[in-house]
Amino acid sequence: MPDNLQFPKNFLWGAAASAHQVEGGNHNDWSEWELANAERLAAEAEKRFGRLPSWPMIREQTTRPENYISGRACDHYRRFREDFDIARSLGHTSHRFSIEWSRIEPEEGRFDEHEIEHYREVIMALRERGMEPFVTLWHWTLPVWLRDKGGVESKEFPKYFARYVQNIVSSLGTSVRFWITLNEPDIQPMNAYFRGLWPPQRTGILAYSQAVHQLIRAHKAAYQVIKTISPNAQIGVSKDNVYFESANWNPWNILLRMFADYFWNHYFFNAISGHQDFVGLNYYFHNRIDWWYQRNENRKISDLGWELYPAGFYFVLKDLARYKKPIYVTENGLADMQDEKRAQFIKDCIASMKRAIGEGVDVRGYFYWSLLDNFEWDKGFWPRFGLMEIDYKTLERKIRPSAREFKRIIDELSL
Ligand code: FCB
């Protein structure tokens, strides 16, 4: 039996990226934070990354402050056409990118037509190449004026977000079918408001809950705005669900697993019930619970030390079927500078996904993270997630062998 039998026709294949991580030249809450924190992050590098097997290879880069400043990044803002040409040549039929709020509304209430035009061109460039745009409206960065008003945690955040979305969708609405309102609306509050790692470096359960609450309100408000302007639009969020597993039948472990699964995987989705047309999944993590979290066996890890566990992808997809909506995998990937593990990882993840599809789970698209190497937030430039390798000195793009393997799988499944 051919391998592709039963594989959905018109399945979307592609890669994802986000504005701040690739565009270059952004001025937002992150860019200011980077300048203020680069020295500290460089000084802390050994403490944070010293135990990784990749340490000898990354030491030089991670101990330099420039690693932590996004600067011109990949210059994708100007080179997007060239990047999309490559994506197209790699068999991609879709691409996920984000719109940078700080470009669109650099000052409160002032919307920049020139920047809206830029994203119109990005969308057109994708359409001209036969690629379906998946547009993320918020991938973590904020205009500085909004940061100064309290950012995500502020009660006014949903109002400002809805106004920004209204502006974008009334300008670009008809050319976009798939909107992702928010990227990972729990990782951002977790790292920025609970653990104090990302701007604005707040710590505490109250700040965290407040931020999640405002993101729920913001999503719902944006959903209404988009539907009113563009009734056929398909709207979702990209959620980073984790495969939580209890190591054994110990009741404590089982309880902890249920608790983690409920709060991390389902709380947000339940809260926005009735306000999503598809489920967006970013799959990276497996969490084996044995008295506490993260008792993973870590047989295979990425350069970042994250466990590679493609088997868990199947369980997460099966679990998401409960929402009875189409599922798009909006991110899945690994940091692998030598490109040694990427091809196998993609293959194994797609096998897990096929298994779920074979059992009736309605998965309709898969986006590898990421199209190109990029700026990985507080870790800076060293983690290499790209299908394309970037030489940050010359900005030259090089296609990694795994990207061609991915193309081979796409071709085989699209027959
Ligand atoms: C996800 C983020 C994305 C990137 C990958 C590695 O959590 O959405 O921006 O940082 O992780």
Number of domains: 1
CATH superfamily membership, which one? Answer: Glycosidases
Question: What spatial order of strands do you see in the largest sheet?
Answer: 1-2-3-4-5-7-9-10
Element order: H for helix, E for strand? EHHHHHEHHEHHEHHEEHEEHEHEEEH
Which CATH architecture would you pick?
Answer: Alpha-Beta Barrel
Distance between the termini: 13 Å
Bound molecules: beta-D-fucopyranose
- The average pLDDT score comes to 97
Which spans have pLDDT < 50 for at least 5 consecutive residues?
none
The level 1 CATH classification is Alpha Beta
Verbal overview:
- Helices cover about 45% and strands about 15% of the residues.
- With about 425 residues, it is α/β, with parallel strands linked by helices.
- The chain has a single domain, classed as TIM Barrel (Alpha-Beta Barrel), CATH 3.20.20.
- The strands form three sheets. The protein has an eight-stranded parallel β-barrel, surrounded by four helices. The chain has a two-stranded parallel sheet with strand order 6-8.
- Helix 13 (about 310-320) packs parallel to helix 14 (about 340-360) and helix 14 (about 340-360) runs parallel beside helix 15.
- The chain is globular, with a radius of gyration of 20 Å.
- The mean pLDDT is about 95.
- Beta-D-fucopyranose binds next to loops.
